[in-house]
Amino acid sequence: MEVLTFKIILVLALFLLALTVAAYSTWAERKVAAVMQDRIGPNRTGPFGLLQPLADGGKFFFKEDFTPAHAEKFLFIIGPSLVMFISLITGAVIPWGRSLNIGGVSHDLQVANIDVGVLYLIGMVSIGVYGIMLGGWASNNKYSLMGAIRASSQMISYELAMGLCLLAIIMMSGTLNLREIVNQQSHGKIWGIIPEISGMNWNIFYQPIAFIIFLVTALAETNRAPFDLAECESELVNGYHTEYSSMKLGLYMFGEYVNMFISNALIVCLFFGGFNFPGIDWVVNHWGENTAGILSVVSFLTKTFFGIFLFMWIRWTLPRFRYDQLMHLGWKKFIPIALINLVLTGAIILAFEHFVK
Q1: How far is 246 from 224, CA to CA, in rounded Å?
Q2: pTM of the model as a whole
Q3: If you write DSSP's letter for every residue of 87-134 in order, what string do you get?
Q4: Where in the chain are the domains?
Q5: Residue 336: its pLDDT value, please?
Q6: Which residues in the chain come in under a pLDDT of 50?
């Protein structure tokens, strides 16, 4: 019963965290853009404009909820709801921290520690595109449909390269369990040469090519610039959510920011040691499990927030690709490079095992 209570509290905490991050990512996005364009950004609603996301949320709730006359009403509602639901449940398998000791019982800071966590995430990401397709098709608008088709073809193209990068990590780790992948990045000498530093044996040192490809494919999967072809205003009015208003539009927008948050959390788990930080074992031994657990959550979120900042930086730095350039990059560049990286990873693993024997 105590474990169930902890899990329920953890689910509620993650739900609130995801919504808070999504809301304040809109504020951060405008602040980052303002700094890069020598402007001030939101500064009227609350100190430093910190209440702007609450004002935006209130606006979404109170605006007229318009549904086109010839739209498929049921699917028109299901589309944004599915996007938001899928983006939220993906965080269930992410290990957000080490563990907390409550009443003599250690509780992992992870909702569901399943053995196929990586497969679960890829499956959820694949289902998420249905929300976009349903919204675009049900709107009965040619611009919305074109945006939905672009989004689906873009995600299919880049999921292949993303999957190949994940295979390289899985081959190195020997597991699909995200917590185990994170734990393996805690100990060991980097390349067997650099002296061991507790909590610093990160996969980024072994798979830099996979990281670069995964980062770019994550941008494409979340429809972030320069891969926002599904909603480019200059061609498709507003893409797949052209006909949406009120909170339905808000669900699409919040879903995109939650996806960005979860994508960066996954990148941290796979390449940057997850919740591990330099000297984590020393903290456990000297300051206790709970202190290490709290610091591990801070470490994880710090890395994740830096990734979100990087996504925003890229958006306001690089121009949007043409659609043919987008597909060319995915099919003719990233997939072959990811395949070569996968083969090299396998060859190095076999050579290392043979050398050890």
Answers
A1: 22
A2: 0.92
A3: HHHGGGG---SSEEEETTEEEES-S---TTHHHHHHHHHHHHHHHHHH
A4: 67-356
A5: 95
A6: none
